[in-house]
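name: query_chain
kind: protein
chains: 1
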Amino acid sequence: MVSDLSLLVAGFLLLFFGAEALVRGATAVSLRAGIPPLIVGLTVLAFSTSSPELVVGLKAAWKGNGGICLGNVIGSNIANTGLILGVAAMILPLGVNRQIVRREIPVMLALTFLFGIFMWGDIIGRIEGALLFTGLIAYIIYSVITARRSGETATQEEVESVAPNLGRHWAVDVTLLVGGLGILILGADLMVTSAVNIATLLGAPEVLIGLTMVAIGTSLPELATSIVAAVKRQSDLMVGNLIGSNIFNLGAILGSASLVRPIVNEGITLIDISILLLFSMALVPIMLTNYKISRLEGALLVLGYFGYMSYIGIQLT
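structure:
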């Protein structure tokens, strides 16, 4: 057990540093290729925030560990909304851009409800995966078009914060890109293997380990980034990234993973799906309240998250 926990922690660390190297390398390489910063921010950076979940999901699906894959996505989305957004709002009330309420949240809700419908059949096949992935591509195309028309600049500022200059040699950026991806794959392998071993030793379903340890571990980069962003009062970028991460988790991870291999439900219950839907829908009235998330609302989100974790903890005992 101790060795598996050590491997799990090592996997967390590799995912964290691998994602950091990947985002910096991919951003710089994209800019060198002449891709506008706006598009880089809406695609490359948005994708990179979910890269740990993506690699873990693909690895789990490839190995036939559907419970880890499903638990990772569902648990990560609940953690993004309940834990990370809630903690950030408790640090500093978050102002929310109206565009997020009008564009990103409806897309997130649509994909969440679509996922819930697919789960009624206890399997996400290649057709369902293709629909989720197509929805993500449509969202990206729509985001780029509307961003160009409205002259968005937030994503450009975000890109510049990650790659402030291209003065270094291009080989460094390529090394970061390739090395970061390699570290991510290694970290995902360690995490999936150790998570399955821990589930076996505890006699617990893999999905519960995916909903807790794996989901929290893959969400650590977002948690650290969001706390820093809240302290720096960059709430628009932070909230947008978290909602975008939820969209990518559903569209890119479940979509691509089920295309690799159909994902069979191995323990996700109606309660888990309902909690995911409730946390997603809770953002609508919260964000419509003067387009802000108050400290009280943040505390309620965190309280709800730990309530759900307590429910899972009872199942593990």
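note: The CA atoms of residues 70 and 241 lie 21 Å apart.
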